[in-house]
Amino acid sequence: MSSQIIEHVVLFKVKDGADPSDVSAMVDRISSLVSLEQVLHLSTGPVLRIRSSSLSFTHLLHIRYKSKHDLDAYTTHPSHVAVVKENAGLHDDAMALDWVVQDLQGDLVVPPGSAVRFSFLKLKENSADEVRNEVLGVVAGIRDKFGEISQFTCGENFSPGRAKGFSIGWLAVFPGITEMEAVDFNEFVKDKIGDHLESVMMLSVRTRPFSSPFSLTFSPSKHLPRFTPSPSLKPYSQSSPSSRSSIKMSAQTIEHIVLFKVKDDTDPSKVNAMVSGLGSLVSLDQVLHLSVGPLLCNRSSAFNFTHMLHSRYNSKDDLNAYSAHPSHVSVVKGSVLPICDDIMAVDWIAHNLQGDLVMPQGSAVRVSFLKLKENLGDDVKNEVLGVIGGIKDNFRQITQFSYGENFSPARAKGFSLASLAVFPGPSELEAVGSNETLVNDQKDKVREHLESVVVVDYVVPSPQARPASL
Questions:
Q1: Cβ of 326: how many Cβ atoms within 10 Å?
Q2: Core-most of 9, 162, 215, 286, by most CB within 10 Å?
């Protein structure tokens, strides 16, 4: 940490009714700016809570720089200008504050999973310098007042043109949401300096290396040793309540696939806890079907994924509600992130699927992700989708088939098309692979358009494989 750091905070209000995939792409574009050499730290994502009587921001960007000069260079950088221009149509309000931090204690990068409360103060008009200094003094003492805070910065805003009249900002970092929720800054501020303030705005966020709880943007893990699940690691499959088992597909269903690579030599009990925790999320109202467990086979040479989660929803809104649900966030933070070193996720809309929402236990599932070569037009994409859509007609062993275009690009490592084929069991799945002539004929139809392919096989676990603790 240098002796001086610049804090840069930008708030956005996404337009009502904005498509979630467009918002996800907006966050992804902003996140890409971390690669600029001026940026020491960048975190962006949705606001968990805002306390303001007149403003309703939905997203926050936090960046750190070494100097005001670096902030200015970032602001005028062509990449930043391009992102601002592309995102402008998605939000209808924005503001920003910047302040100087002297001798900040701790790391430049706020640890992923930390909870952060940002607070901005607007002084009453014509407040004297003595009042401003008094307020700054009280704010600076917050760190010592609340022992839950792990890092604290505050200062006077030096960019008044963008701040809507707010002149003082501070941020407090906590180990997690629980510690943050235990602290009430509002009463402290009112008691100590409320007489000097015209307005106060407080926002809570969670620092995340991803745009939604399963949207980690890990680099591909190449040539990692294969993880072999222990016999004691129990997969989980359930669709609760039990009456869901007879639910038929609606005209539109959201498919959500997450692949995990568990760290080598992870304690089997921790892997089992991860699977159990993820499996318990089937109880959430938004979930139509959820199955999770170890892969039967990973046919990708570039990725060494070991586990898969498959869930289904009625709509994108339900998927977003599931992702943001406190139970989901808790499982990801407590049981998934500590033991996984690679994760990817792909989501697509399945139209008019035939059969039950809930896959029969013991079914074998083959999931395929395709990454197209760069700069291919929609005609090529549609051609590839057409070939994928014809797969079921060529392989009679398939009992259910789903495919589509990924609508969560920030989480998919560049893979844009996906398919899911269900078979009665592993033997029928293997029979497809043994028909090499037909398989190769299908591959040849699209091979020239593909940069990369991920294929994984998975068996839907039986009820008796459910962990006894649930």
A1: 8
A2: 215
